[in-house]
User: What shape does this take?
Amino acid sequence: TSAAAGGGAWELVGTAVASVSASLTITGLDVANYECYAIILSRFQPVNDQANLNMRLGSGSIATSGYNNKNVENGTANTGVTSAIQLTTSVRSSTDGTGVGVGYLHPFLTDSVTAVHGQFYSPASSNTNAIFGGALPAAAGDGVDRVQVLFDTGNIKYGRMTIYGISGHLA
Assistant: This one.
């Protein structure tokens, strides 16, 4: 089969599965080969009740500061969270709190931000259907080669993160 005109193939970069894990990290992203990455989050549930799900990026190591966020509740600037990109808030530790989401990572080689945006759904969260967006500014975001997800408190009880590289560059 062939890709639709203007489209690109999705190629598996990696999958990580949590079983009472502090975080999930996938490495091997190559910003020179992909226009965009799709990040699929399946069945995420925290050990601690009411935990916030976050994402961090890195080049060689994970960056733990300098992130810009949009608030997952109402889209306004969120200056309170700079240690990660906040995907959603208050995920429940009960079985009905299991959440799913998809995000898109737009990496840049140099001199610009690396941006992430998407949506996360958790039926038992106070923020049931979160739309998120955030970025890691130039220098810190140059040549991103890894993605990490983690809760702000406690471990990931279970969950799966899968990343696909989407090929096809802009003309």
